[in-house]
Amino acid sequence: MQIVTDITKYDKRACAATIGSFDGVHRGHLAMLGELRLAAAEKGLPLMVVTFATHPRRVFNRACEPFLLTSSGDKMRLLELAGVDVCVLLDFDCAMASLSAGQFMREILVERLGVQLLAVGYDHHFGRPVPGEGLEQYVAFGNSLGVDVFGTQPFVVDGVAVSSSAIRRALSAGDVALAASLLGRCYSLAGTVVHGAGIGRVLGFPTANIALYCEEQMLPSDGVYETVVTVDGDVFKGVMNIGVKPTVSGKERTNEVHILDFGGDIYGKELVVEFVRRLRGEQSFDNVDALRLQIDADIARVKRGI
Questions:
Q1: In sequence order, what are the beta bridge partners of 89?
Q2: Concatenated DSSP letters of 246-282
Q3: How far apart are CA 63 and CA 52, in angstroms?
Q4: Mean pLDDT, consecutive 10-residue segments, the chain of 306 residues?
Q5: Residues 134 and 22 in one domain
Q6: pTM above the 0.85 mark?
Q7: Is residue 174 part of a domain?
Q8: Domain of 116?
Q9: CATH number of domain containing 11
């Protein structure tokens, strides 16, 4: 997949494209890309995704809480697996945000990128917001520019229209199983193991504290989760805690995982943690002995699959 970071240096050629943040590259995105890929093949056009180097939400609110579903690298990897030929990373800023949809189509999509076929997601709007503007107007703009514009329908799973926002709501509720259903894969985090306070080891359950590669990536809600952990290509079951550990500290929010049946030095290693299900919410116990008993029970559930 060709990745374009400077459209002023891009040697444009006729293509079929779609535009959006593509955060998560979820089942809705994949369905739309599949539909566009078929339409592009009929016209003999390569498939292009136009997305953003920085998520538009971050441009307008730099202080917002972490919300991304995928790192930039993971997004590129997933788009390539989806059969995308060219991915354009736009430097989205206030000047670009001020362009009308018609201006954006003409100046960016047509003049810079050579778009001849454009797919628009059912809930997607681009260009400066205009009340009531949507697919009908985009089709009219396309007709004036020689671009064939068509809209795609929502992809629905168990009555839920798949979207990045729906996945974020599921993660906020700790429903990682629903998030996985909407994504088409387990929600995951990746990072490097760093030294923590060592409380887990004192309790008898050593944990790996993870410094995330993508600090803007969203964590599921506080609680205890069954996970699958990949270390050096080997796969283990794990029990992950997200929260402030009120029984033993009650201060800084951390994410740490106890890896079942793992031995050896883990500091500095890369971990990929996939969320399987939420076992329980974070709790405050009367004493550390009660906490140990609960952790034992959590591990037993994971081992027995109950």
A1: 51
A2: TTTT-SS-EEEEEETT--S--TT-EEEEEEEEEEE--
A3: 18
A4: 95 96 96 96 97 80 83 96 97 82 93 97 79 86 95 92 96 97 97 77 77 94 97 94 77 87 86 97 86 91 89
A5: yes
A6: yes
A7: no
A8: 2-160
A9: 3.40.50.620
